[in-house]
Structures are given as structure tokens and as C-alpha cells.
Fold this protein.
Amino acid sequence: MEKSVVLDELVRMSLSLGRPEMDYVILGEGNTSAKVDDESFYIKASGAQLCRSTRETFVEVKSSKIIDLLDGPDLNDEDIKERLLAARVDKTSPRPSVETVFHAYLLTLPNVRFIGHTHPTAVNTILCSNAAEDIVKSRIFPDEIVYCGLAPLFIPYVDPGLPLARGIRFEVQKYMDTEGEVPKVILMQNHGLIALGAGASDVEAITAMWVKTARILTGAYLLGGIHPLSQDSIDRIHTRPDEEYRRRMNT
Ligand SMILES: [Zn+2]
């Protein structure tokens, strides 16, 4: 995909995720990114509102300069800001979002080219509850698995910025070792959702489907308890050829 097409797709996806009626984000919440190539990616500028996204509210940054932070020393907030500014391809671009580091890591994963991070009310209702980790263990209906994969990855609360990016890398690697695939949904306790996709429309579909899942989980929990699908059913849905076809039709 050409660079300008990537940016236009990112703007379109961000406007879609930022629509007020979706209740995924308000004000400057959330951030989105898209991979240009192995050298660079676009990320939302700090403080920009998704519902007002334009080409100018995104910054192109050099991937290696951000990835280096993951294995470097601990940095304070000021140092991080400096390093994010230094990673810009065009030095007149605005400051990249403070959550740029986890985007940089996730965009190195196989078949991940677009990322949408939001704070949907329906999802955070679960993630801010005492029962969060327990509730999100259940898979509850076929379309959840078709669009969102075998299971979401749950990340216990960590300080945003570098500690969160390191925590995400640790948990994603553990998930890939266990499940043998890249997660499509990451749930951050007391924080929000990350959708990982090969295309912008994947990110929109995954976000919409997991927000619906969250609403159903909450309702079922309140109606006496969640009735989960069996592992056999989950495995069957995940490998069915007709479900694979439906998944591909969306991209
Ligand atoms: Zn966030």
C-alpha cells in the first residue's frame, strides 16, 4: 500500500472509531496507528481528537528509534517526550502520543498493519470492575471468535508509557507461545481496548465486535452468570472454513 493511501486509510478509520455515537472515546482519548513499512509508521499526535482526525493530526515516526526505548533504561516523562520528538521523520510535525511505544512494538507483529486503541464505556465497565479478569475468560458467541480470535489478551494495570509497553510486549510474547497466534484484542485493566488488524476495516470490525461482546458479558453476568462456549466449540469455530471465508470477506 502506498504511503499516502496508508495515511488516508488511517484518517478514515480514526474518524470512524471517534464517532460520538459509538461511545468508544471522548475528547482526546484513544490513539491509532498504521505501518508505512519496516522503517516507519504513522501515529496520532498527542492530544488530537479522533473524531477530528485529518492528515495533519498524525505524525510519521521512525520505528527503530521507538523500539530502542523498550530495551533501554527507564526514562522519566520528560526524557520520553524528548525521545518521541526525536523519532519524528519531519521535525515540524506535532508531538507523538505518549502511547506511541506500544504501537511501535505491536506493528512489528506478523500481519499487523493498523491499530486502534480506544476507551469504550462498555469495555471499561468490565475492565474497571473487580471481576474483570474472570469475566473476560469466557468466550460467549461464535462471531466473537470469528472476528476477535481465540481469546482476548488481558493485561493487569501498569503505568501508561514505557512500563505499559514493556508489560504488553511480555504478555503478547507469552500469549503467542501459548496460543500460536497474534492476539486481535488486548484488554488493559482500568484502561481500555487495543484492536490489531491487517487492514483498517479489520480494526473497526474487531473493535465493534468486542464492544458488543462486552455489553453481552455484562448483561449475562448481571442475569445470573455467563454461560461460556465449550473449548471444543471454540476450537471448531476457530478452524471452520466457512468462518475463515467470512473473516476474509470483511477485509
Ligand atoms: Zn489509552
